[in-house]
């Protein structure tokens, strides 16, 4: 929701997952830490990776 504050939660998650899929190094890093791309919640490590690759929301 932080990246897409004007969207409903379902749409925000879909859009974030779309961004993740468009960034193969991020998708690979998330897979390496056992984070599913279909998860509704992200681990602290996954959040750090997302902000590292996509920047602060």
Folded structure, characterized:
- The protein has 57 residues and is mainly α.
- Helices cover 58% and strands 0% of the residues.
- It contains three helices and no strands.
- The longest helix is centred in the N-terminal third of the chain and has 13 residues, at 9-21.
- 11% of the residues are buried.
User: Could you give the count of β-strands?
Assistant: 0
Give the overall shape.
Answer: globular
Termini distance? 9 Å
Sketch the topology as an H/E string, one letter per element.
HHH
Largest sheet: none
What is the SS-derived class? mainly alpha
Mean pLDDT: 91
In short:
This protein is about 60% helix and about 0% strand. The chain is built from 3 helices and no strands. Helix 2 packs antiparallel against helix 3.
List its traits.
single chain, 57 residues, 3 helices, 0% strand
Architecture blueprint of SSEs:
Layout: H1 9-21, H2 24-32, H3 44-54
Helix pairs in contact: 2-3
């Amino acid at each position: 929701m932080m990246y897409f504050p004007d969207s409903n939660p379902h749409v925000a998650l879909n859009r974030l997952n779309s961004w993740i899929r468009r960034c193969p190094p991020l998708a690979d890093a998330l897979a390496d830490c056992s984070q599913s791309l279909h998860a509704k919640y992200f681990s602290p490590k996954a959040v750090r990776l997302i902000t590292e690759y996509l920047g602060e929301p």
